[in-house]
Design a protein that fits this description.
Elements lengths: L3 E10 L9 E6 L7 E11 L1 H7 L2 E10 L4 E8 L11 E4 L12 E5 L3 E3 L6 H5 L2 H14 L12 E5 L4 H12 L3 E5 L3 H10 L3 E3 L5 H7 L5 E6 L6 H7 E9 L10 H6 L2 E4 L4 H4 L6 H15 L7 E5 L4 H13 L5 E5 L2
Subcellular location: Cytoplasm
Keywords: Cytoplasm, Metal-binding, NADP, Oxidoreductase, RNA-binding, Zinc
InterPro entries: ADH-like_N, ADH_Zn_typ-1, ER, GroES-like_sf, NAD(P)-bd_dom_sf, Quin_OxRdtase/zeta-crystal_CS, Zinc-ADH_QOR/CCCR
Length: 340
């Protein structure tokens, strides 16, 4: 068996229009230690975090840096302390932002943040899910304390940026939990997309969301997920009910006045799905458990994949195409790249 593998890396942080923004390279094949599994990568998905990490800056890598986090594949080998998986198992995962990424043929990942691939999905369909699924699940069920199993049924949630990767899975998880979902979308095709996924109502985040939400008959909402950016902070503060909660996946340099939050005794939560792996938290294995739970919901037909575009193969040219689409801000659902 060869000790080398194909990979797509970068040495300079260039605009995606530059031919050398990504490079097709050959790297040593890694060897699993401890609780790591070595995955033969079959498909990867591209997320906004990929474009943020690759954003142009004056920095040069001495050896090619491999990005990519969402992936699905087959376990090729396991470290000596692995108990959850065996070689041959089909898996899906979102990886660890502090480690080399999945845009390579063989990838090391800690077993505690890996799930068993849904049996009813292809590798491409599965690769679209982990990062956004973990983000949406943690945002609603861990941060906002919405009950996954239905005790919160009937409560309302406004999802700002409902047609993006996180919104596309969050709508489905919220409906599974029995919530009334108001999703924001700004174009006819994205309005149609969020309705297909189960949104009960839609509003346009390019307009007056407060007026639109109230015109639907909701003076306040119980929960709000800011799944695009924090320009909508003031509207969120106005719409959240007293003692309700707002969760955001976007950091910001914009002003965030807090007086309205204080007088409502409302809570603000940040969701960062890499936090558990980055800080090696004692509950890291919760990501393994939630991915397995979601896989069971998918195989039962309760949740659908959010992939909308599949490119082949995994190479520098297709990674540039995918990054360009994400940066344009027009993507709905998820872009996946399949096969080396």
């Amino acid at each position: 068996m060869t000790s080398e593998m194909k990979a797509v890396g970068l040495t300079r942080y260039l605009p995606v229009t530059e031919a050398e923004a990504f490079l097709d390279v050959t790297l040593p094949k890694p060897v699993p230690q401890g609780r790591d599994i070595l995955v033969e990568v079959k498909a990867v998905a591209v997320n906004p975090v990929d474009t943020k990490v690759r954003a142009p800056k004056d920095q040069v890598e001495a050896s090619p840096r491999v990005l990519g986090w969402d992936a699905s594949g087959v376990v090729a080998a396991v470290g000596p302390d692995v108990t959850l998986f065996r070689p041959g198992d089909a898996v899906y995962y979102a990886g660890d932002i502090t480690r080399p990424g999945s845009n390579q043929q063989f990838h090391l990942v800690d077993e505690r943040i890996v799930g068993t691939r849904p049996q009813s999905l292809s590798f491409a369909e599965a690769a679209a899910l982990p990062l956004t699924t973990i983000t949406a699940y943690e945002a609603m069920f861990d941060r906002l304390r919405i009950d996954r199993d239905g005790a919160s049924a009937g409560q309302t949630i406004l999802m700002i940026g409902g047609a993006g990767g996180v919104g596309s899975i969050a709508i489905q998880l919220a409906k599974l939990a029995g919530l009334v979902v108001i999703a924001s979308a700004s174009r006819p095709e994205t309005v149609d997309w969020v309705r297909q996924l189960g949104a009960d109502h839609t509003v346009d985040h390019r307009g007056d969301m407060v007026a639109q939400t109230r015109a639907l008959g909701f003076h306040h909402v119980d929960h709000i997920g800011i799944f695009n950016d924090m320009r909508h902070w003031d509207a969120a503060v106005e719409l959240i009910r007293p003692q309700g909660g707002i969760v955001s996946i976007d950091d910001t340099h914009l002003p965030m006045p807090m007086a309205g939050m204080k007088t409502k005794a409302a809570s603000l939560h940040w969701e960062f799905m890499f936090a558990r792996a980055m800080h090696q938290t004692p509950d890291m294995i919760e990501q393994h458990r939630l991915l397995d739970w979601v896989a069971a919901q998918i195989d039962a037909g309760r949740i659908r994949t959010t992939v909308t575009d599949v490119l082949r193969p995994i190479d520098a040219a297709n990674l540039r195409r995918a990054h360009a689409a994400i940066e344009a801000g027009t993507a709905k659902g998820k872009i996946v790249i399949e096969g080396f």
